[in-house]
């Protein structure tokens, strides 16, 4: 069982930056693939960025490529999402998610249904 707690959300002006953190419980964090998703009002949950359990393989949605960076610190059981050049359309509740791969530790997972554990979410609001 893994528990995830996000932090770092808030209100920021367009062009600003935020860093989201997701702290995970458990002693096998390094074996989990991680993802950041977001959901805006009236829209479906969408992938923002993903990171493989091993090998540092990343995936970014086209809408955030070049602006967001996902990273992890296994010693701290934490995954981060550094967000820069924020836009009003980035406004959403951001969720982190964890998946324990059955076979391939060197790939990213983009579909919400592939993830076993979810945090409660943190609100990011970007004003214009």
List the helices and strands and how they pair.
Elements: E1 4-7, E2 10-13, E3 18-24, E4 33-39, E5 46-51, E6 58-60, E7 68-73, E8 78-83, E9 92-99, E10 117-118, E11 122-127
Parallel strand pairs: 2-11
Antiparallel strand pairs: 1-3, 3-8, 4-5, 4-9, 5-6, 7-8, 9-10, 9-11
Outline the structure in words.
With 128 residues, this protein is an all-beta fold. Helices cover 0% and strands 46% of the residues. It is built from no helices and eleven strands. It has strands at 4-7, 10-13, 18-24, 33-39, 46-51, 58-60, 68-73, 78-83, 92-99, 117-118, 122-127. The strands form two sheets. Strands 2, 4, 5, 6, 9, 10 and 11 form a seven-stranded mixed β-sheet that branches. The protein has a four-stranded antiparallel β-sheet with strand order 1-3-8-7, with no helix packed on it. Strand 5 and strand 6 form a beta hairpin. It is globular. The model has no long low-confidence stretch (mean pLDDT 96).
The profile of the biggest β sheet is: 7 strands, mixed
Order of helices and strands: EEEEEEEEEEE
* Integer-rounded radius of gyration: 14 Å
Rough outline: globular
Mean pLDDT: 96
* Helical residues, percent: under 10%
Beta-strand portion reads over 45%
Q: Please state the structural category.
A: mainly beta
Number of helices: 0
Distance between the termini: 40 Å
The counted number of beta strands is 11
Poorly predicted runs: none
């Amino acid at each position: 069982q893994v528990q995830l707690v996000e932090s770092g959300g808030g209100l920021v002006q367009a062009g600003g930056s935020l860093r989201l953190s997701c702290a995970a419980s458990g002693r096998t964090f390094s074996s989990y693939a991680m993802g950041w998703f977001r959901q805006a009002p009236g829209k479906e949950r969408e992938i923002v960025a993903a990171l493989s359990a091993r090998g540092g393989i990343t995936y970014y949605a086209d809408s955030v490529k070049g602006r967001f960076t996902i990273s992890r610190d296994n010693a701290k059981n934490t995954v981060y999402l550094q967000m820069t050049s924020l836009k009003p359309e980035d406004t959403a509740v951001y969720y982190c998610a964890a998946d324990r791969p059955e076979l391939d530790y060197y790939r990213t997972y983009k579909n919400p249904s592939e993830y076993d554990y979810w945090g409660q979410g943190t609100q990011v609001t970007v004003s214009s």
